[in-house]
């Protein structure tokens, strides 16, 4: 045999602490056909800085679709099927790098996925630039060993082969045709080269993770050995491995035979239904008799199918796949939404999910039983959803399993007329829905009975669009798209249905009120600025108060939300107003000349607007203008002090009662903003930030100029004519 090794690699990704599925880094590989050995090379590394500590990386594997993981232990939505993923842990302790190998023998050909993530996120809100997070990198490479000339076992034809040694197992493959109800594999004439009874192990099927359904049988002696499979995967190559358990250096000749049991499918004339679908879309042509002819032929076809129904092992129902959007598909039955279900043979619906881009969503199958259609009150409609091949023996075994797949069972009765199934990240394959009527006293009881079941099946990116407390996000890894839910207001789970840590409505209202009404503390600062004739500064504070209030009203995760304009616009205006408020306050404290002050106001605002557009959350967008303004203020104060030959500001009362309290409040506000905010306490820590910043501005604003008189609203509003008269009298007296 000729083996060929191949190597596949993807670029390394920076890992994140886990809070939702978007934090897991996904790797997508495709294993070629006839692969006998798969080896994953997993490389994890970390930075060398003091902020890097020991870390445990969790790596999940799955065949056919991204792994369904639950590191936080949250609840999944009702009716969702969850099977634990296969995962390993990689520990980064004293070593900066860790290399791990994972071997898979006879892996299934097709899509394989790896997801890696760090432990649960701490929930602390870190200001970008204040701290340097430790980089944890992860890279996955794939080595495959592929057999180029794997022998093909033809159905019904015995094939002699020889196992050269126990170290070199024999690999053959057989193609499973469509509508194969069963397969039988036989091993004959097994003797060793020394004419002794042989012992061999036969493995049918390939390994799939997280669950593997390989069928293994050990054959001992000269007698024929056989293995039967029910519902093998349709239209796929089935790999068979035969390995010798005899002594070393002993060749074992064997003879293999594979045979299939065919299933004769019945149909409800899908061609005619397709013609009727085409007519319903384009409309009947005037004077055409095609519709009447189709109707008559359809009636004859149905009667013929009814007469031959006993000879069919299943009844096909034509289904149209309708692509709506990315990872969004709707399945529509051609005849009607209701399908007939009887006890003689299962009714089969094909749900095509083999495009390679359908595994990143959720498959939803909803069944509704028409009570009036069931003549027997104690009859039950049993359904099964399976991949690769349908379940054809619902009346005998109700375990909903095929040769290499454990299906998902559903049940309907007159007491429970609805059933729903949610398959999270369905693997890439042809999926089948089988339905059959079951009677408790045997199938003879409900021979003539028939039930009508309405079927709704669709593929959606996120089930129920993540609900009212979640946001469905479309994620991308290279060309592969998949979806995940990002939950809010303490809700969790795959579809944001876990309310274990959810905020109550009153808590959400309280958070909204705190974050919005705390901005009203800018009113004293605005009043002080207006009273001291700092009208430009007062307008900036008003702008900041307005947009901060409505930004936080729109930024709430729960139901207490109000957005007066686009969220991104509100956020930008809030950030811009906050930084410009600090800028104009410090420049106002410097007491530079008015013309220079206003030039700096405008120039600084333009530069701040530009920097916020480049990086809105960068710490230097706030610290840069602050430091530059502080340099200007210190230089101006030094200039005034040298010119007057004493400390500036000269009044100790100004320092004790205004400057020191304002500076203290500003430092406390910065500490709360940078080091104390978390996702859980954000609504009150950020409200404290609003209050402290607004109060510090009121304390730090300098007194008005000495030549400025205080506002005298009553005198200026009521005595305007008297003032003019006095001016004229004085002018007359002088002349």
The gist of it:
The chain is an alpha+beta fold. It is 28% helix and 32% strand.
Q: What report would you give on this structure?
A:
- It contains twelve helices and 33 strands.
- Strand 32 (470-477) and strand 33 form a beta hairpin.
- Helix content is 28%, strand content 32%.
- Strands 7, 22, 23, 24, 26, 29 and 31 form a seven-stranded mixed β-sheet that branches. Strands 20-21-25-30-27-28 form a six-stranded mixed β-sheet, with no helix packed on it. Strands 1, 2, 5, 9 and 11 form a five-stranded antiparallel β-sheet that branches.
- The chain has 735 residues and is an alpha+beta fold.
- The chain is elongated and about 115 Å long.
- It has four domains: 3-123 and 131-147, Jelly Rolls (Sandwich); 157-262, Jelly Rolls; 312-460, GOLD domain (Jelly Rolls, Sandwich), CATH 2.60.120; 505-700, Rhopdopsin 7-helix transmembrane proteins (Up-down Bundle).
Helix content: 25-40%
> SS-based structural class?
alpha+beta
Shape: elongated
Mean pLDDT: 84
| End-to-end CA span | 126 Å
Low-confidence stretches: 269-307, 722-735
Strand content: 25-35%
The structural domain count equals 4
| CATH fold topology of the largest domain | Rhopdopsin 7-helix transmembrane proteins
Keywords: Cell membrane, Disulfide bond, EGF-like domain, Membrane, Transmembrane, Transmembrane helix
Region (Disordered): 278-300
Domain EGF-like: 458-497
Disulfide bonds: 462-472, 487-496
């Amino acid at each position: 045999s000729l083996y060929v090794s191949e190597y596949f690699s993807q670029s390394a990704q920076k890992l994140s602490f886990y809070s939702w599925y978007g934090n897991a880094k996904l790797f997508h590989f495709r294993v070629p056909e006839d692969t006998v050995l798969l080896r994953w090379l997993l490389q994890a590394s970390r930075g060398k800085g003091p902020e890097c500590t020991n870390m445990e990386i969790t790596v999940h594997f799955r065949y056919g679709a991204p792994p369904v993981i639950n590191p936080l232990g949250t609840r999944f939505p009702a009716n969702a099927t969850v099977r634990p993923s296969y995962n390993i842990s990689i520990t980064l302790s004293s070593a900066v790098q860790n290399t791990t190998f994972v071997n898979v023998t006879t892996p299934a050909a097709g899509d394989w996925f790896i997801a890696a993530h760090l432990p649960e996120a701490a929930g602390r809100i870190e200001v970008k630039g204040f701290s340097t997070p430790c980089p944890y990198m992860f890279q996955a490479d794939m080595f495959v060993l592929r057999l180029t000339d794997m022998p093909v076992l033809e159905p019904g034809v015995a094939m002699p082969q020889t196992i050269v040694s126990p170290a070199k197992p024999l690999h053959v493959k057989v193609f499973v045709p469509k509508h194969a109800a069963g397969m039988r594999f036989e091993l004959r004439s097994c003797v060793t080269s020394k004419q002794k009874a042989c012992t061999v192990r036969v493995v049918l099927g390939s390994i799939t993770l997280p669950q593997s359904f390989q069928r293994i049988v050990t054959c001992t002696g000269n007698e024929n050995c056989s293995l039967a499979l029910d519902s093998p995967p349709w239209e796929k190559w089935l790999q068979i491995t035969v390995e010798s358990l005899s002594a070393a250096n002993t060749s074992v000749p064997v003879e293999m035979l594979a045979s299939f049991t065919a299933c004769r499918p019945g149909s409800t004339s899908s061609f005619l239904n397709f013609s009727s679908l085409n007519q319903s879309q384009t409309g009947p042509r005037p004077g055409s008799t095609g519709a009447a002819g189709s109707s008559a032929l359809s009636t004859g076809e149905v009667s013929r199918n009814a007469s031959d129904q006993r000879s069919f092992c299943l009844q096909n129902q034509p289904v149209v796949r309708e692509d709506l959007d990315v990872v969004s598909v709707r399945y529509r039955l051609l005849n009607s939404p209701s399908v007939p279900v009887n006890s003689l043979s299962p009714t089969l619906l094909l749900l095509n999910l083999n495009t390679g881009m359908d595994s990143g969503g959720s498959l939803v199958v909803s069944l509704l039983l028409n009570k009036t259609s069931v003549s027997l009150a104690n009859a039950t409609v049993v359904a099964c959803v399976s991949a690769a091949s349908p379940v054809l023996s619902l009346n005998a075994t109700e375990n909903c399993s095929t040769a290499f797949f454990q299906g998902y069972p559903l049940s309907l009765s007159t007491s429970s007329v609805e059933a729903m199934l949610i398959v999270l990240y369905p693997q890439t394959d042809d999926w089948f829905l089988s339905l059959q009527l079951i009677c408790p006293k045997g199938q003879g009881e409900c021979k003539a009975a028939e039930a009508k079941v309405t079927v709704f099946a669709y593929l959606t990116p996120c089930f129920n669009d993540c609900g009212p407390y979640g946001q469905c996000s479309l994620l991308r890894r290279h060309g592969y798209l998949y979806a995940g839910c990002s939950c809010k207001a303490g809700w969790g789970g795959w579809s944001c249905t876990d309310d274990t840590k959810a905020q109550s409505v009153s808590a959400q209202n309280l958070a909204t009120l705190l974050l919005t009404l705390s901005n009203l503390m800018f009113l004293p600062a605005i009043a002080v600025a207006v009273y001291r004739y700092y009208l430009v500064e007062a307008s900036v504070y008003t702008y900041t108060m307005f947009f901060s209030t409505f930004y936080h009203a729109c930024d709430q995760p729960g139901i207490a939300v109000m957005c007066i304009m686009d969220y991104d616009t509100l956020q930008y205006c809030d950030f811009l107003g906050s930084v410009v408020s600090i800028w104009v306050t410090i420049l106002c404290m410097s007491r530079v000349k008015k013309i220079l002050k206003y030039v700096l106001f405008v120039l600084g605002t333009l530069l701040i607007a530009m920097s916020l557009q480049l990086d809105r959350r960068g710490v230097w967008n706030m610290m840069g203008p602050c430091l530059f303004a502080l340099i200007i203020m210190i230089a101006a104060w030094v200039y005034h002090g040298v010119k007057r030959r004493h400390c500036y500001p000269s009044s100790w009362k100004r320092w004790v009662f205004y400057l020191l309290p304002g500076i203290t409040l500003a430092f406390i506000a910065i500490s709360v903003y940078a080091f104390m905010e978390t996702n859980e306490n954000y609504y009150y820590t950020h409200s404290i930030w609003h209050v402290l910043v607004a109060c510090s501005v009121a304390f730090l604003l300098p007194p008005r100029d000495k030549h400025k008189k205080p506002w005298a609203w009553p005198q200026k509003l009521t005595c305007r004519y008297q003032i003019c008269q006095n001016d004229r009298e004085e002018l007359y007296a002088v002349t």
